[in-house]
Design brief:
about 20% helix; alpha+beta
Amino acid sequence: MKKQTIKITAIRLARLWLFFSCFVTAAQENTIQMKSDIYSENKTLTDIMRFEDIDYYTTKFTGTALKNKEYYIVAKEIWNGKIKKTDTVFNSSTNSYIGKIEKDSMNLRVIAGKSSDKTLKIKFMFDRFEVQKEYKSIRSDDYSLRDFGSHFPIITGKPFYAFAYILPYEDKQGNKFWCAVESSGKDIESWGKEFGIKHYILFEMRFGE
């Protein structure tokens, strides 16, 4: 009787292990990783970009789930804590030239900076095409582009914020903090209210339907 109980328990454990094993494998198949490096390996070029307040990222998305997926980037402009405008940067499903992703990896370079006192300019450069956009801003040189999507796993079919173009949190002494905002753990759309940030832009992406 005891041997039979042990045998049944072993079978149940084996089935349970098989279930979770399949669950983890399925989750991994739908997961994409985003990795970004800021600035350049050329120190002189990096110094120039810092002097000119230019942000530059080399980004790579990896994962088997990327293959044959359509994708988009949407910009959300947040003023005084509220989303005032949503704009499609591009959508591969409506552009036959861009098409679907053919491999299990995708490269992206992003460069951003002020083009005038009250205008931001950002360019997304992929292997086969590039898209440039301009957005209204306040008169400040404190804007900083952050690679927000590299902090979390990316799931196909679900939108995520890849980049955030933000102003810093400023304390009563006039000290400015960008990392305090980025790493706060708070809802990214509520940064304006939580930190008193007048304006920032979120760049949302999604792979697949």
